[in-house]
Amino acid sequence: MNQPASAGGRTGPRPASTPRVWLVSGYRAGERSQMLALAEALGWPYELKQLTYRRRGFTASLLRGSDLRGIRPGLSSALQPPWPELVISAGMRNEPVVRWIRAQSGGRTRLVHIGRPWARPETFDLVITTPQYRLPAQASILHNTMTLSQVTATRLALEADTWRPYYAHLPEPYLGVVLGGHSGPYTLGTNTAARTARQVSALAADRGASVLVTSSARTPVKALQVFEQHLSVPYKLYRWRPENTENPYLGILALSEALVVSADSVSMLSEACATGKPVYMAELAAYGHPMRPASDIGGDFRMAALAYSTMMRFGPPRLSRDLRLVHRALLEQGRAVWLGERFERLPPPPGDEIGRAVRRVLALFAA
What we know:
The chain is α/β, with parallel strands linked by helices. The chain has helices spanning 29-42, 58-62, 95-104, 153-163, 190-207, 221-229, 249-255, 266-273, 303-314, 324-332, 353-364; strands spanning 21-24, 46-49, 86-90, 110-114, 126-129, 141-143, 174-178, 186-187, 210-214, 235-238, 258-262, 279-282, 285-286, 336-338. It folds into 2 domains: 21-145 and 355-364, Rossmann fold (3-Layer(aba) Sandwich), CATH 3.40.50; 153-350, Rossmann fold (3-Layer(aba) Sandwich). 31% of the residues lie in helices and 15% in strands.
């Protein structure tokens, strides 16, 4: 029998002067990670509200509603008084819910949205975004180059100690590889996987390194198999599984001296760059919108990629996102290069995206 999802989070005694915080959980891993990163950095106790959505509940979001029609209240965390002073959210389906929460509080609740809002940005007290969404420059929007991340020097040190024995049979140094999957007009097919594996092997051989690989929730099974078949250096591969809580992802970021990340995920690129290590972006096959200028990489046809590319070309910009804007920023800042190229100089220290976000949230309560 299904039970309502319980509210979790870093709870405990809350000083009277401390805002009550709810995290209305995003339904994508990258969004959830950003929300938790911001909440942890704020240092205030918070409750995590897990929502279960109706199959056609997205229509409430499209109509810019302020209600709970898009969720199943009996299977979701309780939304009841005392109402929070701050709600952190992400995702289109959560927008009507957080507006409803603010209405129940008599307008006292501040709304912080991460990513791209589908309602007007000024509907929220603060929007924290990154370049691919092409949002306008206005007072209520914080533009960061990278997404918010829980990757810190302290956490990396702990993860390195935890996972070092797991990889002790492989000779150091280590080259970490993080594989994503299909995204918009980009496809991680078998041809792309084989090419990336050959490039990774060449880079690892040049460095005298072993390869630590992890897939993700979006990595196609066949592409991962082909990638492994084309590796020609010592390696260990972790296959992502939703039920497995022992995931070496952060351990790979911590132990590797350099990182290769498939360039389909802004969150994965941001977390890799947050380590301050050299990051190599692996290009994916594309239709109409290549990741690299003048690139003609293809050979992995996917109808959905072709449809998305058409939407990017002819549809309204707000209906799509352009990952190339993030790639361009990382290249210009010297934080990353394309796989197959070389760093001209060491990457700069990690940015302070999380610090900027915390300061903007604190400013909402300064009065």
